[in-house]
Amino acid sequence: MATFEIEGNGFVLDGKPIRLISGAMHYFRIVPDYWEDRLRKLRACGFNAVETYVAWNVHEPKEGRFVFDGMADVERFVRLAGELGLHVILRPSPYICAEWEFGGLPSWLLADPAMRLRCSDPPFLEKVKAYYDELLPRLKPLLCTSGGPIVAMQIENEYGSYGNDKAYLNFLRETMIAGGMDVLLFTSDGSEDYMLQGGTLPDVLATLNFGSNPERAFAKLLVHQPDKPLFCMEYWNGWFDHWGDEHHVRGYADVVDVLDRILAIGASVNFYMFHGGTNFGFYNGANHIDHYEPTVTSYDYNALLSEAGDPTDKYWAIREVIGRYAELPDEPVPAASAKRGYGEVRMTERAALFDSFDRIGGEPVASVAPETMERLGQDYGFVWYETELSGPQTNCEIMLQHVRDRASIYIDGAFRGVAERAGADSVVADIPPSGVKLGILVENMGRINYGSQLRDVKGITEGVKAGVRQYNQFLFGWTIRTLPLDDLAGLVYEPYDPDAIREETPAFYRGTFVAEEPADTFLKLTGWTKGVAYINGFNLGRYWEKGPQRTLYVPAPLLRKGLNELVVFELHGMDQPVVTLQDKPELG
């Protein structure tokens, strides 16, 4: 058992002064086989602590169904950190931001249109309490007061950027205390007055998040909290990418300078991120400041370790700075992982989506109007809407009112265009006298993870209208199919017809390759348009020709020695049915 406490303007561990130099990495963004490697590289860089969020949507994907194994085994991750001599800062807030889908909140909260998020509304608190009743007993043995490595826990994340409900913050604190969380509790916010006013609690350590000008930030904190230690809970040493952006790079000279100033002040610090990892599956988040911007699959973050866990120039530069203020461990830095290019993989089989609804989709649902994913009980992936559109109609505008987020529109099975949340909302077509079958495939590109538009339901959220824009009418009478794409085992493939190249209908393409020695590799889809890739049934994440991400990271533990299966779900066709597995990533 140990105690980690505040004493004066510093921290003490079992009565001895300590400064935390921590690095962030998220267990749910790293395959478990690599957890130890990443933690050892953290320790070898001179860090004495690791910080991780706990993502509610990872652990309770369906209400009342809890998952704490595989990539969700937070207990194993924390124990491993402790075995390696690292302290742990845990941030188990209901909300985590983190450029993670819905900021870590589970999508099923949105099935109730009256649900109020991140406040003391009783229905929301009831859901949080049920989650904590499962989570906190698992964490109790891992606290330093129980002999474990967790020295501090967060109450809420950047709450002052969202709201000012002190009753909500107090509920979280009291629930954690009642659950036995008898370690140091803290909040973390930006350094603006309104953020610190709304996001902090009396007698609870307030910490700051920033990427530059530490003197200004800490001076502001001291106005609000003059008698407690200074702690930068998120030192932003890199940044994340949206689809269509340029890849963000922050040079290490600037990062080194700011860190040196933080440590010279005497503050503790947590690098956000030390190692970013990957938004596998459909777990990327999105932002909406001026418009909707989904985050890419890679969470490389231009951090100290690359997406594949390799030390960067920034790693070595930061290690040198830390060595000025703390003793570096006398141990070698673990080597970079082995990389291998397996060359071209020809996709020799194909399964059309429209022929596969019964094999991978939910049962058809008859509905008067389009329903959202959440009302249909679906979390991620795609949803198919189908109805009859009468004719004749010349220059008929088919408009999606509030689509979330990107819709491919088909008339009698033929592709007619895309309507997007952040772009055009309609297509125009001539409808013959006999009428047509209208089909709309909507992709959830990632729920918003930050800010006032956090409530982000997916699918067609209002309705579909047809006719002349000024006089169009809502269409009623729909058949809906949920397509979470979480289990593709039921697909039936046929030999691929190369004449179908660039056919604008969504389909799954399958190929195989041999890996005599599994190693990290990177999937490049040159000439492909947009979709999702799977390796041996594992969802690697999204790809999109607009970049900046040009490859998908494939960790070696996902490969088998011998034959491996690669499946690509492509929405719009490709130049050639060939992909490449190469030995280096491409970002930007």
CATH topology of the largest domain: TIM Barrel
Spatial order of strands in the largest sheet: 4-5-6-7-8-9-10-11
Termini separation: 48 Å
Our count of domains comes out at 3
What name goes with the CATH superfamily of the largest domain? Glycosidases
GO biological process, one term: carbohydrate metabolic process
Protein name: Beta-galactosidase
GO molecular function, one term: beta-galactosidase activity
Organism: Cohnella nanjingensis
Summary tags:
alpha+beta; 10 helices; TIM Barrel; 588 residues; beta-galactosidase activity; Jelly Rolls; Glycoside_Hdrlase_35
Task: Please explain how this structure is put together.
Strand 29 and strand 30 form a beta hairpin. The model has no long low-confidence stretch (mean pLDDT 97). With 588 residues, the chain is of the alpha+beta class. The protein has three domains: 4-325, TIM Barrel (Alpha-Beta Barrel), CATH 3.20.20.80; 343-351 and 487-582, Jelly Rolls (Sandwich), CATH 2.60.120.260; 362-483, Jelly Rolls, CATH 2.60.120. 18% of the residues lie in helices and 31% in strands. Helix 8 packs parallel to helix 9. The protein contains ten helices and 33 strands. The strands form seven sheets. It has an eight-stranded parallel β-barrel with strand order 4-5-6-7-8-9-10-11, surrounded by six helices. Residues 11-324 form the Glycoside hydrolase 35 catalytic domain. Belongs to the glycosyl hydrolase 35 family. Pfam families: BetaGal_ABD_1, BetaGal_gal-bd, Glyco_hydro_35. Residues 370-480 form the Beta-galactosidase 1-like first all-beta domain.
